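Entry 14. Ran structure prediction on the chain below.
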Amino acid sequence: MHGAMSSLECWGTLNTPQGSERVPSEQGAYHAYYEAFAQAVRDGSKPPVTPEQAIEVPMRLMLLLLAHVKIGSWN
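Output, structure tokens:
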């Protein structure tokens, strides 16, 4: 079947200091996010993600990356 995914394609890998394990992926709910965003634009209600939250996650990732590059380690 075109576009069908095998059961193994619906799994991801969780890497922790204790090792790696395959975990099932969960279906995203992007439609709910965009519906809430549109509602916030229409009526001024609270958005699903604040501007501060939208900036915080990429900034933390960038700082983590820079710290690992600086010490030359990914462990």
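Residues 51-71 form the longest helix (21 residues). Will compare against last week's run tomorrow.
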